[in-house]
Design brief:
The chain is α/β, with parallel strands linked by helices. The chain has helices spanning about 125-130, 140-145, 195-215, 230-240, 260-270, 285-295, 305-310, 345-350, 360-370, 375-395, 415-420, 425-430, 430-440, 440-445, 460-485; strands at about 5-10, 20-25, 30, 40, 50-55, 70, 90-95, 105, 115, 120-125, 165, 170, 175-180, 220-225, 245-250, 275-280, 320, 405. This is Asparagine synthase (Glutamine-hydrolysing).
Amino acid sequence: MELNDQFLVSAGARPHPDGWLVAQAGRWTLASSPTLPVTPLLDEHGATAGWLLGWVVAPDGEFLHQRPTLPLGEVVAPDGDVEERLYRFAGRWACVLLSGRPRVHLDPAGSLAAVYSEQEEAVASTTTVLHHGDRALGERFGRRTLPPGQFFPAGLTNEPKVHRVLPNHLLDLETWQTRRHWPPAPVERVDDRDTEAVADRQRAIADGVRLTIESIAAHHRVLLPLTAGRDSRLLAAAAHRVLDRCTFVVFAYDDQRASDLAFARGAARRFDLDLRVLPPEPVDERAARTYLDRVGYDANEGKAGDFMLAAGRLPLDHAWLTGFAAEVGRGEYWKASDLPRNPSADELVQLVRLRPEPAYRDALETWRAGTPHQDVEELLDLAYLEMRVGCWASPQLYGAAPFTLSTIPVNRRDVFSAMLQLPTALRAAQRTAPAATALNWPELARLPYGRAPGLRGAPDALARGAQRVRDGAALGTRLRRALRR
């Protein structure tokens, strides 16, 4: 079984796949796939004080994972704080700090996903790695329960005694408990009448995504999604200056997403883009088992047909960049909902679009109690980042075809901060991504959303217009209720 880009950190040695690399620091052992970069962090005496795992992009574009070692001071201040140093970095990474109080930090989207077991004193990429060699792993396929689009929220996994490290949380390796480290307080939004402040946040989004993509393109040819939606357009615009290094990809789904294919083809003709059209492949039991083993059974096998099988026909020496997490900037969980002011645990389960499971309700209630927020919109923004991205999207990167690098260009602390600081009215109107897109590629931003360019997209335009009317009515109801409160 190939478990590319995965890892295991444990107190003492544990079974791991053959051919993995092993490093030790004190009582801690790191076993990692040869495809995962590992950069030792050295203290002032030259001793190993931790490891930086994964692909790390510095603010100046340097690939820090190409260095043989890094001084500990690059990621942590003398007082132990990491916010000003570690969280400058883009990419897809996890940081294991062993000096002071041992702990594990994840990148802002938790995209190098991690699960842990207090009982076994180990943290790993997936439950598959955590319990490598356990015969019971072969029985999981018959017990799988997650339908498409569903996930285990708020730190839960498919194993009761194994939990997930959420984005914005650290794992304490002494207590084996997680705790939130960001945001420390509700995020202060800018006033929608302050046009300069709004423009500053939109520029931060545009620049952050552009810098990440350009930095990666300096080292690898890149594969980018191209659809009729806002998120892929944000990425495409950010790649405007490196189009000669880009291949765009659209999956030819046989459903309501046909407008994506029409848009991609129209945009590729108009701007002379290198476009690959990939029909998803059927997923048989063997493919489903392979995919689920790679993601640790914390997802459904539905993405195996596109992310693993179809994408596997692309050049694997390229970097695979996804549009995950851009929805944080457009209020995906609340943009068209008539929201309760203080949702109950059961309502919160519904708002994050999960099945009504008692374990989900209890976990979400505990999560909410430790989540700083000024209103339900911010609560749901953090839920989207920490649940939909951290618990659904990020684990599935382990199941994608084994590209030389797979990452989320929006995955930056400065970008997420700017998104959360934008006024809710602007975000509800879906203006975040188009504004940031226009800053990097105005001509691309002027093409319509949700439809093909020109007359080919007229039927889709009518349907989208009707949906906007319905969404506007729902938003108006919400605003009237808010004013009455």
